[in-house]
Design goal:
The protein contains four helices and two strands, in the order H-E-E-H-H-H. The chain is mainly α. Strands 1-2 form a two-stranded antiparallel sheet. Helix 2 runs parallel beside helix 4.
Length: 125
């Protein structure tokens, strides 16, 4: 009986049709050496996507000439620092504090980008 069920489920699993209920939740409890909450891959990917979208927004603003190359350089540098911090944190899994810190930094750079678009002075800051 078990072999028949496995034989029936195998094609569905191979095609990726099987549902993944674990992807529905952002947080899960994992017993590790830090003894705390760890991020699921879905939330990890969301932060990575936010950083990627920030890079694209900077490139788009520079190509539209709403910010100068000098302003874009500074914003890209900030974005690269966020990416480096994310990579360092992600090695051991992200906890809630690290996620909050990364989101705050991404939001600050987004705000700086908005301000740079509106000042029209071609200087950073």
């Amino acid at each position: 009986m078990r072999k028949q069920i496995l034989a029936a489920m195998l094609p569905a699993l191979m095609l990726g049709i099987a549902a993944t209920p674990a992807a529905a939740q952002d947080w899960r409890h994992r017993d590790d050496d830090r003894g705390g909450w760890q991020m699921t891959p879905a939330r990890n990917n969301q932060i990575r996507a936010d950083i990627w979208a920030l890079d694209n927004a900077i490139a788009r603003a520079q190509s539209n000439r709403t910010i100068s190359p000098r302003e874009a350089y500074g914003l890209r540098r900030d974005s690269n620092q966020i990416r480096a911090t994310f990579n360092a944190y992600a090695r051991n899994g992200l906890d809630r504090g690290e996620v909050a810190q990364l989101q705050t930094r991404v939001n600050r750079v987004r705000q700086s980008l908005r301000m740079e678009r509106r000042d029209w002075n071609n200087w950073r800051g």
